[in-house]
């Protein structure tokens, strides 16, 4: 008998160490050596303008956790520090993480430890002898007091509880990576908004300078018209050009206001508080020269969205184990210890103590196919999560490939645009001198002014694109969160 008891105990210990269903293994990283079909140069094209420096691609380089500091702007650092402490988006993500952790804590208690409940009751009741088959016994009325502690424990023989814990732990990790993704998106959106603001201020400044020059040109033409030196059509043409240039200004100012409002909200402030934030100009931002580029084999471990998708896949795998374990028997151990008396004064006397021990086994026999259907549904949910994981990986690689191409192409575009601007400026300078000497008509000068205006605005936009591309690269590669100490997400 003793040997049998030992065997049963050993069996329980052995079974408690395994769990039904598949053991999760993270998917393998994509087998890719490069991000783009065509190889990228080791560095981008350089241009003789502000923000036109060549940028070097460093394969396998390490990304700093505060990557935005590479732009060399204390004002940008200030706004990001403010956003990290005030952003409701991060606060919500942190709360979701705490919620997932507490849900896990609650489940740990029910799986690992037995449940114990204390009860205290008092009742007055009347019973009849008829209820016990003794019709001749008179009815009696009495009080009954009860104080007891009941303990129950569900043996997790087939791992349903442990698989539920595994699923909940994956949910905690999922929320953790969601927090990292929110952190990355917030900082990247701020850098992008700052770059956009700087570009708009540059365009507005250039437009105002052009307006000033065109107004002077109009004054000169009106004086010449009064002296009979030019025709009325030339004056009207200059007025039309001036009006067209002025018309572009409100749209730029509106977009700048919207960008400032966006920046305020990203920083956790109301739009009317945008004036308290620093203003940004392209000359205040430094273009990072060295661009670390994670190896393709490392990207899946660095992107928060991929890691979050992997944790959803892990949770789905664990739920397959739960559904599998539910097909097998469940054994519950229970016991109670207490006291029961008809007199409250004698409730805790030695002769009033009561106890019981019990065990129960439930084996599903016929449930109309419910349990197996639920397992098939869990497997289908896993397949869905795996497909979504693969899609997340594919989109992440596309994201990096697009940004790398943009960095190279936009650098070449800036070089071409700087050459176009230089040529337009030279053409305008020559046209002005020739017009003053009477060598060309005013309409040729007007055309030169229009081309120079367009080239100048396009040059500023091309300069800003390089800053936006750089920020997009750091975001696409995961932002270096793995280099940040744990717990610094909202307190950098």
Name the descriptors.
6 strands, 492 residues, two-stranded parallel ribbon, single chain, elongated, four-stranded antiparallel beta sheet, alpha+beta, 9 helices
Write the layout of secondary structure elements.
Layout: H1 2-16, E1 56-59, H2 74-86, H3 88-112, E2 115-127, E3 140-155, H4 160-226, H5 232-266, E4 290-293, H6 296-302, H7 304-325, E5 330-341, E6 353-362, H8 370-436, H9 442-476
Parallel strand pairs: 1-4
Antiparallel strand pairs: 2-3, 3-5, 5-6
Briefly characterize the structure.
It contains nine helices and six strands; from the N terminus they run αβααββααβααββαα. The protein is of the alpha+beta class.
Distance between the termini: 65 Å
Radius of gyration: 37 Å
Q: Main beta sheet, described?
A: 4 strands, antiparallel
Low-confidence stretches: 1-16
List the strand order in the largest sheet.
2-3-5-6
Category from helices, strands and their pairing:
alpha+beta
Q: Estimate the global geometry from the Cα principal axes.
A: elongated
């Amino acid at each position: 008998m003793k040997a049998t008891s030992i065997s049963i105990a050993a069996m329980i210990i052995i079974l408690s160490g395994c769990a039904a269903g598949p053991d999760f293994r993270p998917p393998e990283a994509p087998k890719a050596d490069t991000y783009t079909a065509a190889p990228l140069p080791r560095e981008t094209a350089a241009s003789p303008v502000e923000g036109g420096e060549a940028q070097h691609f460093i394969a396998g380089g390490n990304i700093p956790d505060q990557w935005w500091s590479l732009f060399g702007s204390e004002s940008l650092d200030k706004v990001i520090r403010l956003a990290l402490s005030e952003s409701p988006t991060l606060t919500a993500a942190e709360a979701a993480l705490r919620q997932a952790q507490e849900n896990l804590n609650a489940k740990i208690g029910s799986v690992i430890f037995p449940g114990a409940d204390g009860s205290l009751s008092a009742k007055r009741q009347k019973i009849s002898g008829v209820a016990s088959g003794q019709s001749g016994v008179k009815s009696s009325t009495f009080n009954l007091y009860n104080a007891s502690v009941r303990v129950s424990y569900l043996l997790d023989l087939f791992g349903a509880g442990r698989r539920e814990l595994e699923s909940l732990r994956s949910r905690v990790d999922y929320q953790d990576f969601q927090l990292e993704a929110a952190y990355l998106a917030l900082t990247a959106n701020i850098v992008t908004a700052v770059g956009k603001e700087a570009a708009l201020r540059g365009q507005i400044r250039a437009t105002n300078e052009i307006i000033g020059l065109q107004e002077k040109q109009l004054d000169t033409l009106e004086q010449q018209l009064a002296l009979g030196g030019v025709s009325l059509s030339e004056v009207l043409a200059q007025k039309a050009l001036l009006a067209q240039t002025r018309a572009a200004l409100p749209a730029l100012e509106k977009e700048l206001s919207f960008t400032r409002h966006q920046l305020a909200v990203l920083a956790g402030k109301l739009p009317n508080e945008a004036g308290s934030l620093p203003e940004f100009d392209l000359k205040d931002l430094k273009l990072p020269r060295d661009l670390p580029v994670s190896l393709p084999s490392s990207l899946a471990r660095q992107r928060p969205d991929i890691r979050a998708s992997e944790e959803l896949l892990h949770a789905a795998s664990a739920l397959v184990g739960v559904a599998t374990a539910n097909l097998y028997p469940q054994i519950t151990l229970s016991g109670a210890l207490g006291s029961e008396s008809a007199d409250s004064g004698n409730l805790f006397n030695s002769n009033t103590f009561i106890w019981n021990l019990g065990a129960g086994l439930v084996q599903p026999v016929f449930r109309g196919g419910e349990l197996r259907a639920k397992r098939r549904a869990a497997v289908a949910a896993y397949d869905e999560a795996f497909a979504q994981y693969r899609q997340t990986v594919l989109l992440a690689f596309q994201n990096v490939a697009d940004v790398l191409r943009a960095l190279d192409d936009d650098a070449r575009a800036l070089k071409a645009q700087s050459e176009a601007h230089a040529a337009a400026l030279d053409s305008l300078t020559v046209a002005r001198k020739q017009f003053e000497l009477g060598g060309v008509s005013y309409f040729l000068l007007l055309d030169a002014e229009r081309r120079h205006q367009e080239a100048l605005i396009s040059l500023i936009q091309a300069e800003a694109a390089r800053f936006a591309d750089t920020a997009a690269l750091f975001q696409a590669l995961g932002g270096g969160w793995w280099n940040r100490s744990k717990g610094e997400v909202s307190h950098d």
